[in-house]
């Protein structure tokens, strides 16, 4: 993987930062929200989910970036927009963990095209985004289609059961063995 700078990492998703000096997020050409997240706050969650959880209070030195991020996260919730991930890896995490400005901290950026996130919690104090692998999303979509299909077929199944019971009670059904079918 080639080394990308901050703006190049966002451009990978077709997103352009409003201001590369203070913006943490952008809206991509496809409408998705692109977000730069600190590696230190990404943790495994249930299953194969990778969870990013952060507190707005920790971001004390960059009000414009924090406000724009908050706006983008609200847009993601309201529009059911996917969140795309850029992982920021600082050479020294101490300033980030302490909530100090990190503009002078050397860092690298990993573009995670294999993950898509969903904002699962957003309050005035904090936010949580769950990232899933694209392959897991395909499997989840298949399961949802099956669930919807079975849910739509309940009336039909109920009618078939009622008809079978009616046929049994009317004597139109008799027991046979497999070799008699």
Work out the count of structural domains: 2
Mean pLDDT: 86
Distance between the termini: 63 Å
Overall radius of gyration: 25 Å
> Which class best fits the helix and strand makeup?
alpha+beta
**How many strands?**
7
Spans of 5+ residues with little confidence (pLDDT < 50)?
A: none
- The strand order across the widest sheet is 1-2-5-6-7-4-3
Query: Which H/E pattern describes the elements?
Result: HEEEEHEHEEHH
The shape is elongated
What is the helical fraction, as a range of percent?
25-40%
> Which assembly state applies to the chains in this document?
single chain
Plain-language structure description:
With 181 residues, the chain is α+β, with helices and mostly antiparallel strands. The chain folds into 2 domains: 6-134, no CATH class; 140-173, no CATH class. It has helices spanning 6-12, 63-78, 94-97, 134-152, 154-169; strands at residues 25-27, 33-38, 42-44, 50-55, 83-90, 107-122, 126-133. The protein has a 7-stranded mixed beta sheet with strand order 1-2-5-6-7-4-3. A hairpin with a 3-residue loop joins strand 6 (107-122) and strand 7. The protein is elongated, with a radius of gyration of 25 Å. The relative contact order is 0.14.
Topology of helices and strands:
Blueprint: H1 6-12, E1 25-27, E2 33-38, E3 42-44, E4 50-55, H2 63-78, E5 83-90, H3 94-97, E6 107-122, E7 126-133, H4 134-152, H5 154-169
Parallel strand pairs: 2-5
Antiparallel strand pairs: 1-2, 3-4, 4-7, 5-6, 6-7
